[in-house]
Amino acid sequence: MLFLTLTLNIIIIFGSVDGILEYNTDCYSAIRQVGLPRLWKDDNNISHPLKTITVNEIAAYQQVNRIFQEDIGKVPIIRELYTYTSMPLLSCLTQDSPQLIQKIREEFLDYPALTKFNYNLSVTTDEFLRDPEIFGDRQAIEVDELVFHGKLRDGFFIEAGGYDFEDQSTSLYFELKYNWTGLILEPNQAHYKKGLTKHRKVYSSSTCFSMYQRPAFLRYSFNEESTRKEEATGDLWIQCLPLYSMLLAMENPTVNYLSLDIEGGEFQVLQTIPWDKVDIEVISIESHFLGIRSPGTLEDVIEYMDKNGYVHIPNAHKIDEETDLINLEEEVDHIKNDLFVRKDVVNKY
Fold first, then answer.
1. What is the reported pTM?
2. Disulfide check for 337: which of 42, 61, 317, 330 has CB 3.0–4.6 Å away?
3. CATH code that applies to domain 125-342
4. What per-residue confidence (pLDDT) applies to 116?
5. CB contact at 8 A, 196 and 204
């Protein structure tokens, strides 16, 4: 044990010189699982310094049916077994690491469905487009009316918190009406598996956005459908990846619309983005849990986004007074979202 401690200290010295590996709590834990440096680190490969990337799998029973407040006690809860996969040593890599980007492409991205697959939605495309106010999500329509004015075809979106890729999807409207594509993230395996059956023409990943500028393990709660840094809450640790890393895995496209609906932690994810290296035009964030499930108020977010070149559009997304949240202990009654538009994009469209 003493020998291992001395070895880790030596690693820190050399790691700080070449800047390839980032040593942190998650990284240390992963290294201890693997053993001595000769077993996991490749000193002869600058771009791919990890020789052995271990894979951990955790099986968890989780609820697969969504029960509304009025149905509690009346509808039986259905649970199924799902497997969550993680690669602990990825936490040693920086968010722009070539090895991390390669692993994301190989292991964490599902690619757009082939054109031979028709959509498997609850309504047809024609039905959806005839009345998107009913079948679509109002948030996407508001963004189109306020910013894009129906002028942008073949755009690119990111939707974090995709649920089943259809119900309340903030990206489906752009895909069906304007032929956009993009990336959908949904860490809940039950929701994600259902989402894949919809045959959306998008990249997708059953992971979450990291709250650090590196891969990290966050605590996921099935009940809240959210991730947090704190160990005290949640059901299991899950592998989360930086937003910037996911973008690099897709060749860093222009993101016309980013929708962050992750039930808390939105501010922390925004703070991981290297704004000078990405092209993100419009952002909607779920804001009713700001300062409650994670640090940072809406005012903090507005100030931060202003410094990075975005203007806040007050009341762009209407508070849905008809949608109650079952989180009374957190004093949150209704959904609220806030819109940010990059200053040079305000008049672009």
1. 0.88
2. 317
3. 3.40.50.150
4. 64
5. yes
